[in-house]
Amino acid sequence: MAATDEKNYITPEGFAALKAEFHQLYKIERPEVVRTVSWAASNGDRSENGDYIYGKRRLRQIDSRCRHLMRRMDLAEIVDASQQQHLEKVYFGAWVTLYNLDDDTEHTYRIVGKDELEPSKGYISWVSPLAKSFMGKSVGDTVRAVTPKGEETFEIIAIQYLKP
User: Fold this and answer.
1) Which of the four, 4, 121, 125, 126, has the lowest number of CB atoms within 10 Å?
2) What is the distance between the alpha carbons of residues 10 and 95, in angstroms, rounded to a whole number?
3) What's the rounded Cα separation, in Å, for the pair 134 and 142?
4) Percent of the chain residues past pLDDT 90, beyond the cut
5) What's the predicted TM-score (pTM) here?
């Protein structure tokens, strides 16, 4: 299976966000841009017509993003954390609170799909080195992971499958 054909694990919220973005682009923005381009084209000379040139560029961007979103949704495998078994271990969709033994700090992360990354909210991809290091682990386990700061040691202090 090629990397582009691998399963796109995603939370129900993440899938809803992809659908909402697709709807916004395809049903709302695209028709408006098409109207603008049609109007601009009816004005004659297109070579120096900013509305036409920008509109055509924006249509290409919208169409490209819509194709990408459709591919991601087609490959999506929705994983509902509320249906997760073995809740005492870290799996996809979990909120994991880690204690950093190297710098005496605490961090909470949620393991999500690649399309849901939001580091500012603590959402990390299930394929990231940090998430991979604590997959299948339990509260009290110590893990070493490569982070942007280098290799660090963490203790898992909490695992939740509902938003903390």
Assistant:
1) 4
2) 14
3) 9
4) 74
5) 0.80
